[in-house]
Amino acid sequence: MDPLALARWQFAITTVYHFFFVPLTLGLSVMVAIMETMYVRTGNENYRRMTKFWGKLFLINFAMGVVTGIVQEFQFGMNWSEYSRFVGDIFGAPLAIEALLAFFLESTFLGVWIFGWEKLSKGLHAGVMWLVAIATNLSALWILIANSFMQQPVGYVIENGRAQLENFLDVVFNPNVFYQFPHTVLSGFVTASFFVLGISAYHLARKNDLAVFKPSFQLGAMVAVVTSSLIIFSGHSQAQHMVQIQPMKTAAAEALWESEDPASFSILTIGDLTLRGEIFSIRIPGVLSLLSYNQLNGEVRGINDLQAEYEKLYGPGNYVPPVAIPYWSFRIMVGAGFLMVGLAIYALFLSVSDLVEARGKVLKYFPALIALPYLANTAGWLLTEVGRYPWVVYGLVKLEEGVSTIVTASMLLISLIGYILIYSLLIFATLYLLRKYARRGTEESVVVAEAGSSETYPSLTGAAD
């Protein structure tokens, strides 16, 4: 019944719920825009059907993302009012711009896109979808600018016991944004591509509407190969930046208790990772230095040395994250990432070699692969946020300093239970709708199947196959 612990649990749970839907929104909005662009360029009605099918799933996901996202911002005033009082002048600016510029833009034009199919020209209607896709990713940019201030605070001065904005451009061009934003957007494309691959494979295995789902599978495979490969490089760059600005997070992610030069990479560490010791560890010498500095030597600070340094710098206290969470989160994220690269290459091979229809037994397993990017996304955010412990704003505001002082444990417990129940119902409803409309396929395909007719299906260049 500790208010701080309950406030942390509430924010963590609502964040994980919310981030189930954000990556798919980022990536699928662009993929739907690409599909509609192909329709405009070729005039092939199958692309129009494809756009409407995936657009419907995008809308269901988008609605849930909006609902869960609103609660996120309310918590800054309810459970973390002391944090908001201290840094609200800085943190509030990018969030306000996100709402007034990006969110209003995407929601407005999304309405135009939904109701404008028969009222706008084909080119203009496709342009509206591109505006939705751009605004959606701009929304993520401004939110990550705010989050980057929490990871690497810049552009502020402390006056009258509060952090006040000194240089807005420093906040906007925070170095952390250049590593965090590409990685997050790429994770959205990977999520969307595996979403498209999984659902397309479901229908291809059943020979449903090849005119729509074969090119969908091909597009999903192409996007998956490119973005799942790029995200490894963006993650590597982000990890190297993390070594510089948050060395404790790096040490925790590797269960590195003592500083090493060259530093070893942990393959497996078994033991009580919440304390100093370990029971069993398999490490590869020099690899952590290679990952950190692109060379086989270079010191990586250990947890014990960093704890002693932070006590001198910030005062007595525990500055060590719960090591088990960042340690295993990192391995789950990286393991899922490399697995997705291999699976994406295999999917592209099936697509370009025209073996998709002949691999029905393999395709039936593809829908389960939709879970992989969600697993990686959740693990990545756990690493990012839990690894920053004990800071709300790194080096400025500790967790106990940011929590609201007038919110009681009973209030937090009741609201936490309420959020879990309501969010569980919402996510159940969302998954039900996504599954229902994903399994149904296109409405036109039902008519075609009942009529017993066949159609040619387009390649991504628009030519009939």
What keywords describe this structure?
465 residues; mainly alpha; disordered C terminus
Strand order, main sheet: write it out.
1-2
Mean pLDDT: 89
What's the story with the biggest beta sheet? 2 strands, antiparallel
Q: How much of the residues is beta strand, in percent?
A: 5-15%
Radius of gyration: 24 Å
| Helix and strand element order | HHHHHEEHHHHEEHHHHHEEHHH
Q: Give the distance, in angstroms, between the N- and C-terminal Cα atoms.
A: 64 Å
Specify the structural class. Answer: mainly alpha
Tell how many strands the DSSP assignment holds. Answer: 6
The total number of structural domains is 1
Layout of strands and helices, then pairs:
Elements: H1 3-19, H2 22-42, H3 45-78, H4 81-115, H5 122-151, E1 156-159, E2 162-165, H6 168-172, H7 177-205, H8 210-245, H9 247-253, E3 265-270, E4 280-284, H10 287-293, H11 303-314, H12 324-352, H13 360-363, H14 371-386, E5 391-393, E6 397-398, H15 399-402, H16 409-440, H17 443-451
Antiparallel strand pairs: 1-2, 3-4, 5-6
Helix pairs in contact: 1-3, 1-16, 2-3, 2-5, 2-7, 3-4, 3-8, 3-16, 4-5, 5-7, 7-8, 7-14, 8-9, 8-12, 12-14
